[in-house]
Write a structure and sequence with these properties.
single chain, about 220 residues, alpha/beta, Nucleotidyltransferase, domain 5, 6 helices, 6 strands
């Protein structure tokens, strides 16, 4: 079977950056649902651009949408069978060692997404993972590292990994991942937008894990 993952990040893992949280995630879709998810998001995205008089090639980022638009999009997307949102949020104060290589930590975060959200349901399957990531700020020499890392980490399973890098401007799957992870990130920061949208999500279809759960403490 094939599982398509679309992954993005919000915040910064570097300790010299003052952001408190770092979030990695987006969604995965089973092969039969991949095109339904992207087609639905593309349709909703283009309707909003037409309504605002924006050119078709304009990239709508998460911060361009209103609360209502985000809620409407995510409600429609999460109702598609075979679609599952997933995200993990790191509170940087819980990380004991200074992170020097951000992309190495990103690889670790992707491993956790697979381990915590996908593995419990599909670990006996023969799975071909196609992982789609925004190519922004990815050095050429790092582009093959994630696939090699995952093949090693999951060597006891019958999994294969292909990593594809995209310009988000031309990829609606990556744009949807940006919308999901940015919504989660804003919820982690306890922003009003994050709280409002998060309250309307189906938490069986869009799942979030908080590293060490300290993020939920008052």
């Amino acid at each position: 079977m094939k599982i398509y993952m679309y992954i993005d990040e919000s915040g910064s893992i570097h300790f010299n950056n003052k952001t408190k949280y770092f979030a990695v995630g987006g969604y995965f879709a089973l092969e039969a649902s991949k095109f339904k998810v992207i087609s639905k998001y593309k349709n909703l995205n283009q309707k909003i651009k037409v309504k605002r008089g924006l050119p078709n090639d304009f990239e709508l980022k998460s911060y361009h949408y209103s609360f209502k638009e985000k809620t409407d999009i995510l409600n429609k997307i999460q109702n598609i069978d075979g679609f599952y949102g997933l995200a993990i949020v790191f509170n940087k104060s819980d990380i004991n060692k200074k992170i020097i290589q951000a992309k190495t930590f990103f690889n670790y975060a992707v491993k956790l997404l697979i381990t915590n959200f996908i593995l419990p349901f599909y670990k006996t399957e023969n799975i071909e993972f196609i992982i789609n990531i925004d190519n922004q700020n990815i050095a050429i020499k790092e582009m093959n590292n994630l696939a090699k890392y995952l093949k090693t980490e999951f060597c006891i399973y019958n999994f294969s990994f292909e990593v594809r890098y995209h310009d988000s401007k031309n990829n609606y799957g990556i744009q949807l991942a940006d919308l999901i992870i940015n919504t989660v990130y804003n919820y982690a920061k306890k922003s009003n937008s994050g709280k409002v949208i998060f309250a309307n999500l189906d938490h069986e279809k869009i799942k979030i894990e908080f590293f060490h759960d300290k993020i939920l403490e008052n």
